[in-house]
Amino acid sequence: VSWDKESNQINIMGNEQSMQIARLECALAPKDTLEVVNSGAEAAKTRNGAWQYALMTPDLKKAYYEDFVSMNWCTGVSSPWIKGFEVKELGKPDDNTYRYSVEFTWTDSTNETTVGTDYVTVTNADGVWLISRIGKLDVKGEITKVTPGSESKAESIFVEGSKSSGATYDQANVLIGPETKIYQGNTDKEIKPQELKVGTKVEVVFKEGPMIMIYPPQAVAAEIRVF
Q1: Tens of pLDDT, residue by residue, the chain (227 residues)
Q2: Is-contact 179 207, C-beta < 8 A?
Q3: N or C: which terminus of the chain carries fewer CB neighbours within 10 A?
Q4: pTM of this prediction?
């Protein structure tokens, strides 16, 4: 039994087993960015939390560790299940970072299907490509209303899209908090809230945490991308 101060975790295994797992993960590490995203999507499809965990950067592992343990390393539920997925490259902010979208198709015993999209960021970590961020596409569409706050900055925007966009919601009231990041397209170039105008097309990922469960939903954005 050992205590990992950095990750605040108790490790119950021998050094030999730890080394075995570490070397196995190293040997099976994807060789390029597309491979790591496809592997992550296939791991989600097969509900294999251990595989998903092995594909993550150390920081992302810390964020997901307790969830994986609580689910006994089996992610998702028996129904609905992932029927298939499609991976698309969105951009390359820099030489060590790529962004992808993964569009999952879900089905159930009634053969009904729904579509949901994850945004995946892949980073080069010491020569190995690993997943550094996963965010769900919560709403995608056009800004139809801007509510100004102080200094003429947008306090919130109302976004309207469609159910076929792959987003969780077809419309939402998006709050802009002090930690909300607003980017130009699929780059890492940040832009100011004042540039959010009616008619602007955006994609929004909500901040993790509680949200007002009304329809349309209202939540603070973690990330807004302007197109």
Answers
A1: 566 666 666 665 555 666 667 667 766 777 899 999 999 999 999 999 999 999 999 999 999 999 999 999 999 888 899 999 999 999 998 889 999 999 999 999 999 999 999 999 999 988 889 999 999 999 999 999 999 887 667 799 999 998 778 899 999 999 999 999 999 998 889 999 989 999 999 999 999 877 777 889 999 999 999 99
A2: yes
A3: N
A4: 0.77
